[in-house]
Design brief:
Rossmann fold; two-stranded antiparallel sheet
Length: 216
């Protein structure tokens, strides 16, 4: 095992849990009638612009839904926006739960979760994402009042997990978050959310000699 790494940190959506990637996909999952694609694209862009305030606890759920509906000229109602938001979380990636359970067995390793998320999605973690729920240290942006890629987020996380810099190995599907984590001094590996994430994570862990090849 690597002599330095003692804490394995995971992003949630795109690493442990599959999530919707477009407004249209969210509408399909929610059973909400899709409007012309240009409207959906505009809604998605507006949602991404508003999300940082929501994900850092500066905006209530209702205010967020209302803002998205208004930003889309109310083509999608507040109730439809809420339904899409609820449907955004999908199922876990195959094999991730077993991998996290395996890591939790190592006495000299701890596991953690660092996610840009919101209170409503966070409340559903135990039911919808049991693998994430069994992680030892779970931290969401809405609880910190900070979000990735802000370096203050990484600093706040370090204070809570008693590990810092090269002691942390971080997995995220966002290139921006990976770049920021590396700049902060963490070991960080980007995960492709379109492929089997467990296989990718295990490959990195084996390369770093944290897990032995074929240890499952």
């Amino acid at each position: 095992m690597s002599d330095d790494i003692r804490h394995i940190c995971f992003d949630w959506g795109g690493v442990i849990l599959k999530i919707c990637r477009t407004w249209e996909e969210g509408c399909t999952q929610a059973g909400v009638p899709k409007q012309p694609k240009k409207v959906g694209t505009a809604c998605y862009k507006k949602m991404r612009a508003i999300e940082p305030r929501y994900q850092t606890g500066q905006m209530s759920d209702k205010a967020f839904f209302r803002s998205i509906s208004k930003a889309c000229d109310e083509v999608y109602s507040i109730e439809e926006v809420e339904a899409v938001h609820h449907a955004w979380l999908l199922e876990e990636y195959d094999g991730v739960g077993e991998l996290i359970e395996e890591l939790n067995e190592y006495a000299d390793l701890t596991t953690g979760l660092l996610s840009n998320t919101n209170a409503l999605h966070w409340e559903r973690m135990e039911e919808d994402s049991p693998s994430a729920w069994c992680i030892e240290h779970k931290h969401g942006s809405h609880l910190f009042g900070l979000a990735k890629p802000d370096e203050k987020t990484f600093a706040a996380y370090e204070r809570r997990v008693n590990a810092a810099g090269p002691q942390v190995l971080f997995f995220d599907d966002s290139p921006e978050h990976i770049e920021a984590a590396r700049a902060f001094g963490w070991n960080a590996e980007q995960i492709d959310h379109t492929k089997c994430t467990a296989t990718q994570i295990r490959g990195h862990l084996e390369r770093l000699m944290i897990l032995e090849p074929g240890s499952v």
